[in-house]
Amino acid sequence: MSFGAFSSGLLIGLREGVEGALIVAIVLAYLARTGNGRHASRIWLGTGLAIAVSLAAGLLIFSTVGSLQEPYEQAFEGGTMLVAAAVVTWMLFWMRRQAMGLRSELQAAVDRVLTEGTAFGLAILAFTAVIREGIETSLFLVGQATSVSADAGSLFAGALVGLAAAVVVGWLFYTGSRRIDLRAFFRWTGIGLVFIAAGLLSHAVHEFVEIGVIPIGTATTFDISAAFSDTDGLGAFLRAIFGYSASPEVATLVTHVTYLVVVLALYLRPVRLATAGPDQRAVPTTR
What are the Cα distances from residue 133, in Å, to 77, 161, 195, 277? Predict the structure, then answer.
């Protein structure tokens, strides 16, 4: 088993899984508190459907990659990694902006469904809320799997462990536990995902350079393979998690460094938020 790929999958599954688990926990807790706990089965129905659709989408994309011939395989792999990096980057900043008001928005949506719609509308609400996290997770895992290739099994094993841990975090949140600092959790796991996304983006550029889609910056910047290979040991670990390359092209290295500098600077800057009520302050994340 590749520890690097396993660690990468663990971080992805844990971070993305916790986001989805918190959504479900918030809705279930609100239903129980307002005397509507009998409708919880609808939430589980919508959540289960969202997980099933996300899993099917991920398997479809992953199987498609393996069935293509060169150079279409490299083009599809590069496109998949590019989309995965873009989606995860967008979701990190979306969650960063919306986190403080997430609880109140979900509760308002539940109220609308219960007063204006039907109980099965809760299943739709849960599906739409969770599917976003599910599709994002599937894309990110497939993109990472195409970059680590033979270590995909370790990646998916790590993701399953991370998702299992995310269920525990969701349960602790549902029971009102304060043992987990969600603000610090989302901040540091978000930073980790930025580094992983940078690796995906640079690997996508590498694929496009190989098939001639990117004609500039194709020269090798440096080659330290003899001293610090990216195929075994610590180098393989860093490659699986952060996309390290012992002999990157100019375009690949520039893309990697530029993404890290720009995105980390934007992600770590202070967030200016309006004054929040008690419910809104209950789910602080990346500020």
Answer: 21, 17, 19, 26
What is residue 232's DSSP assignment? Answer: S
Query: Is position 270 within any domain?
Result: yes
Q: In terms of residues, how long is the chain? A: 287
Task: Tell me if the pTM is above 0.85.
Answer: no
- The DSSP code sequence of 95-147 is HHHHGGGHHHHHHHHHHHHHHHS-TTHHHHHHHHHHHHHHHHHHHHHHHHHHH
| Total number of domains in the chain | 1
44 in Cβ contact with 25 (< 8 Å):
no
In a domain, 284, yes or no: no
Range of the domain at 39: 3-274
Q: Which residues contact 28 (CB under 8 A, 6 or more apart)?
A: 40, 43, 174
Determine the Cα–Cα distance for residues 244 and 237; give it in Å rounded to an integer.
9
Kindly state whether residue 282 falls inside one of the protein's structural domains.
no
- Respond yes or no on whether the N-terminal peptide bond of residue 71 is cis (omega within 30° of 0): yes
Instruction: Say what the pLDDT of residue 118 is.
Output: 67
- Whether residue 201 lies inside any domain: the answer is yes
Structure tokens at 170: 């969701």
pLDDT in tens, 247-259: 999 999 999 999 9
267 touches 92 (CB < 8 A): yes
